[in-house]
Amino acid sequence: MLVMFTARRLKPGSWEQFRRAWDPGEEKPPGFRQAYHARNIRDEDEVISFGLFDMTEDEYRSWRGQADAEENKRVDSMSDFVENEHVAGVFEVIEVVEQ
After folding, report:
1. Is the CATH number of domain 2-92 3.30.565.10?
2. Domain residue extents for the chain
3. What is the pTM of this model?
């Protein structure tokens, strides 16, 4: 399983515009399971977003190779509402800790 994760500081009051720009619509990546957006309770403009994907690294690279232009366009539209990005990447799940 892979996790696509980003921690961002949004431009003040731009959550709704950012959220619309983030939305991939019906064309979600293969293996998509769910995504979360979480807001810092002390600062509503600090947001983390992460999605869970049931795919291998090779499958991710194949998809990204095919969808690169479209994904770059989506990321560019989000950047209009982002002040800075602290951390971003695609991470492989190496352990699951359950209740």
Report:
1. no
2. 2-92
3. 0.88
